[in-house]
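RESIDUES AND SHAPES:
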Amino acid sequence: MITTKYVNYRQVLNLSGIHLIWISIWCTLIAVLFYFFNWQWMIIPWVPVALIGTAEAFLVGFKNNQAYDRLWEARKIWGGIVNSSRSFASMVYAFHTENEEVGTFDLEDRRKKIIYRHIAWLYAFREQLLIPTEWEHISAEEEHSHHNVNQKRNRLIKAGFPDYGRTPIFLHKYLSEEEAELQSTYKNFATYLISQQAKDINALKNMKAISDFNQMQLQTGLNEFYGFQGQAERIKKFPSPRQFASTAFVFNVLFILLLPLGLVNEFAKLGDWGIWTCIPFCIIIGWIYIIMELVGDYSENPFAGLMFDVPMLSICRTIEIDLLQIMGEHEDLPEAIASKNGVIV
């Protein structure tokens, strides 16, 4: 997630620098051909170009709205996980019965195991959401240069945040060795962890450490986590419909290709100097349309491992700190994740 108040020039160039180059070359080429060779046959009226630009603006606007909805829904899901995690931990430590047969140490050990497993679930779930899909910009199709660029961006982010790829360490910290080793066995390890939580909570009820009503409330909390997980997986595994994304991109390129063909003749009416003045205006207009396209294109995948993502690592760390303090642990708490270079993950 970008944390600076305004997007700085480095972030803009990082996003659109390559596109700015080909737009500049194309607009300059048309101006040169028109000035030196006076090729009137390649000129088209401005009206159809303007109509295409207007239609493209509506289509890109629709695409960006849908992308923002996906991004904001993803943030609301993780916001719900924050609130439900705090409630769940509070209930685990608040619920108990006056059963003398239940040892204090045994109860405390079971509570600690449940909370630790929930923290492990957070990091395991985050890691699962970061697995790239074929339609994301971080896709491993190395034959496309822009995928290599995004892989480089991902590596830079990881290098800036040492905890970014330390999920295996966290799992061994908060899970028993037996449970941590099961990660390779289950295709959806996060789901397995929640199912184990249900078994442990049911065991607390059977040993009469909590009442039946308490067990039902805790199970409701686990059901909420299942719900949040399913909602996030829906966003991750179902892309924004490609028919909208693809047509918006194709129309955008078509408009930018036609733009100097219609604009150069309009500026030529000002004189020979107007032809050269056309170049920066063509570049600016084309660049604006490319930026609008890229903003929606990157925002539609909020779990892609880039700077446009929901800051899951930061949220996981916030929950981890809160839960450890609810357990009564106030020493050696992990540090909160701070933004670096205007980005937080």
